[in-house]
């Protein structure tokens, strides 16, 4: 008898899962850039961390957002180009309270270093321009420096700095959390600023580059804020032609619990908070549908993941990498698959050493965290067609929850790519195993080849990864059988499985 019945409606397409949905975010914060991506913040001793580059390249990350975060709205890109020894040292306004040795920004890692990193990793850059304390001209100049092939001072400066050809950066964010650290603006105020920026950047884009830019505005988790923003955007005289391709939201969760001290009831709560991603996406999509009816605007979740109390500005937002966090990432990636018709990108925070990073470093060591394993297991979904998947699973009520919320104990999503159907299943129950029964409509499983992977079978949810145990989190095989036309398996507590059928 199955605890959970999963039905994959193989012919009920939702939309293509954009590979960019598996994107990442890195900020000049704590040890993310300096020590994480780059060996040092000193101008004498510069270089990429090859171990980290190779872990990111292996994962084939599709897009990387930089330089922030709050840092972006106080960053002046010209500080970070040209000869290293001539770059000014500045304060890092938002993350100045970090580890003592990193309160300032050396600018050793700037635009050309970031874009070279992207080339080495094989990923698309996503640059976040300064709206809070910058100017439309500064943003437009940055784009010209990166992307213009002609004969201007800024294009020549890029050539002098070692890059003859334009970089062709496609994704440009105009501002970050402008309702907060990006200038404390009302939605109407940010919309007017956005319109001012997009006017110059958009016009320049039409005239100067042989490829399209995708412009990204920073929204909010709340429906009303996004509606008010979009209503004001609509006042543009360009109407539907006005450049706005994506609207973003940020969703962090787990803020009340340090995992090593938390109990199972709190694990349930964290997972429910993660699943609230669905509500945030629906609200944003609802605002877009209600107001921006004549244009196609994608939803980007350009910062997301766990943020536990251990992660404070004083320790550079570092927190342990646990199985529970990784499990929550799997649940969220399933949601992105269900909403592949609206979600165009996501960027988990943050790539190395900060918050729910995928990679951790300690001096010469670099290792994959459990969340890295989840992204790897979900990789076959990238670029595939998501299909409707229904799950009938037991639920558990949260203890002492004023909203009477419940945790569904099993989650799943599926995608189809040619002859392959790929199904991911999470057992969100941190206490017990769950038996799953998976039916794939229209597929005769007896004639198919089935391959499986299982993560975290023998690990407790609060188990932390470090340099010595990182390999223990690698995937193993899940035992499945075919019974009356369905796949049957038992998922141990707090595990994630990938099942490929072709
Ligand atoms: O990721 C850390 C911070 O969280 C970012 O700088 C900011 O955008 C968000 O509030």
Describe the secondary structure blueprint for this structure:
Blueprint (H helix, E strand, L loop, with lengths): L3 E13 L6 E3 L24 H10 L3 E4 L23 E2 L12 E2 L5 H11 L2 E6 L6 H12 L5 H8 L10 E4 L12 H22 L5 E5 L4 H11 L12 E8 L10 H12 L1 H15 L6 E9 L16 H16 L4 E7 L9 E4 L2 E4 L1 H9 L6 E8 L2 E3 L8 E3 L1 E8 L2 E8 L6 E7 L9 E6 L24 E4 L2 E6 L3 E7 L1
Parallel strand pairs: 1-19, 2-3, 2-11, 3-6, 6-7, 7-8, 8-9, 9-10, 10-11
Antiparallel strand pairs: 1-14, 4-5, 12-13, 14-17, 15-16, 17-18, 18-23, 19-22, 20-23, 21-22
Helix pairs in contact: 3-4, 3-5, 5-6, 6-8, 7-9, 9-10
The structure holds alpha-L-arabinofuranose.
Short description, anyone?
With 502 residues, this protein is an alpha/beta fold.
Keywords:
502 residues; alpha/beta; Immunoglobulin-like; TIM Barrel; 2 domains; nine-stranded mixed sheet; eight-stranded parallel beta barrel; 23 strands
């Amino acid at each position: 008898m199955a605890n959970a019945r999963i039905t994959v409606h193989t012919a009920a397409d939702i939309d293509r899962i954009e590979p960019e949905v598996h994107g990442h975010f890195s900020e000049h914060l704590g040890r993310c850039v300096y020590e994480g991506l780059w060996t040092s913040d000193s101008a004498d001793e510069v270089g990429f961390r090859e171990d980290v580059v190779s872990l990111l390249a292996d994962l084939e990350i599709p897009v990387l957002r930089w330089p922030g975060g709050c840092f972006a709205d106080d960053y002046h890109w010209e500080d970070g180009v040209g000869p290293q020894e001539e770059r000014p040292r500045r304060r890092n306004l938002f993350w100045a309270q970090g580890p003592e040795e990193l309160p300032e920004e050396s600018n050793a890692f700037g635009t050309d270093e970031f874009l070279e990193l992207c080339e080495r990793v094989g990923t698309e850059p996503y640059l976040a321009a300064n709206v809070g304390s910058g100017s439309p001209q500064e943003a437009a100049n940055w784009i010209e420096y990166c992307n213009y092939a002609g004969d201007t001072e800024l294009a020549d400066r890029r050539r002098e700095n070692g890059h003859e050809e334009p970089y062709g950066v496609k994704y440009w964010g105009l501002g970050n959390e402008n309702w907060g650290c990006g200038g404390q603006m009302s939605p109407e105020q940010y919309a007017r600023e956005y319109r001012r920026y997009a006017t110059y950047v958009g016009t320049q884009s039409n005239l100067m580059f042989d490829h399209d830019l995708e412009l990204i505005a920073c929204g909010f988790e709340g429906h009303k804020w996004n509606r008010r923003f979009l209503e004001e955007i609509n006042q543009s005289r360009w109407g539907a032609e006005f450049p706005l391709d994506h609207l973003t939201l940020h969703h962090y969760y787990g803020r009340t619990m340090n995992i090593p001290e938390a109990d199972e009831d709190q694990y349930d709560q964290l997972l429910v908070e993660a699943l609230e991603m669905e509500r945030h996406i629906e609200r944003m999509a609802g605002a877009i549908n209600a107001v921006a009816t004549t244009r196609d605007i994608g939803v980007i979740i350009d910062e997301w993941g766990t943020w536990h109390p251990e992660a404070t500005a004083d320790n550079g937002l570092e927190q342990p990498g646990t199985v529970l966090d990784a499990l929550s990432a799997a649940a969220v990636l399933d949601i992105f698959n269900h909403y592949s018709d609206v979600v165009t990108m996501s960027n988990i925070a943050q790539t190395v050493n900060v918050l729910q990073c995928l990679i951790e470093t300690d001096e010469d060591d670099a290792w994959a965290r459990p969340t890295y394993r989840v992204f790897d297991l979900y990789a076959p979904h990238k670029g595939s067609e998501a299909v409707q998947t229904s799950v009938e699973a037991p639920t558990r009520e949260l203890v002492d929850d004023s909203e009477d919320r419940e945790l569904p104990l099993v989650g799943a999503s599926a995608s189809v790519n040619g002859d392959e159907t790929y199904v991911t299943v999470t057992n969100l129950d941190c206490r017990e195993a769950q038996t799953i029964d998976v039916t794939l409509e229209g597929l005769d499983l007896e004639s198919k080849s089935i391959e499986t992977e299982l993560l975290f079978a023998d690990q407790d949810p609060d188990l932390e990864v470090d340099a010595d145990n990182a390999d223990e989190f690698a995937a193993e095989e899940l035992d499945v059988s075919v019974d009356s036309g369905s796949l049957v398996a038992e998922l141990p507590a707090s595990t994630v499985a990938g099942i490929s059928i072709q």
